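User: I've been going back and forth on whether these two constructs are worth ordering. Before I decide, could you fold them both?

Assistant: Sure. I'll take them in the order you sent them. The first construct and its structure tokens:
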Amino acid sequence: MYYVEGLTQHEIAERLGIGRVTVVRNINEAIRQREVKIWIEGEVSECFALEAELKNAFGFKEAVVVPEPVLPENVTKAIGVAAGMHVSDTLSDDMTVGVGWGATLYESLATLAPRDLENVQVISLLGGIVQARKFNPAEFAWQFARLMGADCYLFQAPAVVDSPETREALIERCGLRDIFRRAERLDLALLSVGTMAPASTAFRFNLISDEERVELLRRGAVGDLLFNFYDRHGQLVDHPVNRRIMSLPIEQLRSVPTRIIASGGNDKVECLLGAIKLINCNVLITNEATARELLVRRG
């Protein structure tokens, strides 16, 4: 009634014999459950100009710059919304998509538009976590696949294990080798990056200790991609934790034809610069302020 017929909240309340507050609550709940999806179709000239500059400066195949939100805390959501729309437009029949996880990618679910596609596969590129929260990587991959009507292959292992030997044993003896083989045929990888702050996803779930975080910082780490920690030059940091991560190897990611990083915010500039080099990213989705700072830092 509200979004299709154009009735006011007052008119809906009268027709249904309920209070206006109930109408508002139900409309908000429909948006929260993604039964109603809202986005704006339009062009912002400043963002277009920044996209062109980013492509020229970094050699990106594509760049998407979203307008700066009024509230800084909405940067993650704005980038995620744009990522969902971009991926929806990019997918086609017979594609194999690898996905990471995190707050930004979770927001992309709001605008993933189901399409009538055939033979699409979604592969989780990172192991899971014990605590079942909304940023669980397996949960994100499954929701992504469900929305796209795709087959889903989960990385059934902890995101971080206790030793390189355990990692190798899980891959060779517990069926994970099949995930790596399937990932050899990836057409697109959708990823985000994390900072070295204690509140960042990699540390929030206590999978990596604070002592290890401090040591990673000492060795020059500026961020993580799929829990792989790297420096500002885009090189993996020489630290034992990088040999205990249950994720697709970085060298394998570099061979994926379309490598998308969706991330932004004032605290992400340093780790984005490193991540772009780390996987030779060729599609970036970010916000205006971050785009401008990336261009300044790039020189």
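The second construct, handled the same way:
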Amino acid sequence: MTAGAVEPDEVSSPAAPVRPVVRVGAPTERRNPLSVDLDLMSTRDVLAAINEADRRVPAAVAEVLDEIAATVDLAVAALRGGHRVHYFGAGTSGRLGVLDAVELAPTFNSPRDWFCAHLAGGPDAIWRAVEDAEDDDRGGAAEAAECVRAGDLVVGLAASGRTPYVLGALAASRAKGASTVLLCANPEAEAAGSVDVFIGVDTGPEVVTGSTRMKAGTAQKLALNAFSTAVMVRLGRVYSNLMIDMVATNAKLRGRMISILVEATGCSEEVSRRALSEADGDLKTALVSLVSGAEVPAARAALARSADQVRGALALLAS
């Protein structure tokens, strides 16, 4: 070996990059004293502990109904003004935003660009964790800057209330002139004062410490379901408690259309089928025609004059 040569075991490997470490103090990261012996419990007792903890969630959501109502009003105003609602989230929170957004079109026939879901790490993050994506505040800000417009509503979803990707998106959205909301499971979140509406659901420590797909995720699912459903009700996509703007994409849903007409009008199934056929499968037109007694063309015209609102169309025909 020549002078100065290095033995193989003396060759130093490149140092691994130092990754940032953050210790989160949110309630969701604290230990739950009721589940400290979780791994020693019987299967039945594990399930009972989870179920008992889950009972807290609806009550916690009930405590923030005023804030959810304020968010509904902001969304209705935005959508009526030709704007959009955006969800920005990471991990479980982001996936729940995607789930809520994609279910609105088939359920309420809402335009597909009304609700836009943005997930840290992109579409791949639906199926697998994308490393460090949630820590990318610049990525969240850049995505918001690209697609959010003045007049939109942006809802940030973050169990801890501190996810950098979400907070970056909210900050950029405010700068664009959008209204902003933060939905989290941390009533103590520092970001509370930097949004128009703060929804801090107090779900407390998880049964499995830090596993926010549990109570925190359930709370977000309940809050998002309530929020988006109430928005659709306010926009006239529900008549009584019937979904009259649904898209009949399969046999079950085509049957549901008939059931809705029977329930809403008191007419027989045969009459309801005939009305739906005469309305070319348009549930709202058939409904307005049957309830008012007007012919299909008149029902269709009344809906057009009332911004496709059933109650408004019926009032027009009644006058």
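Notes on the second construct follow. The first strand starts at residue 85 and ends at 89. Residues 1-8 have pLDDT under 50 and may be disordered.
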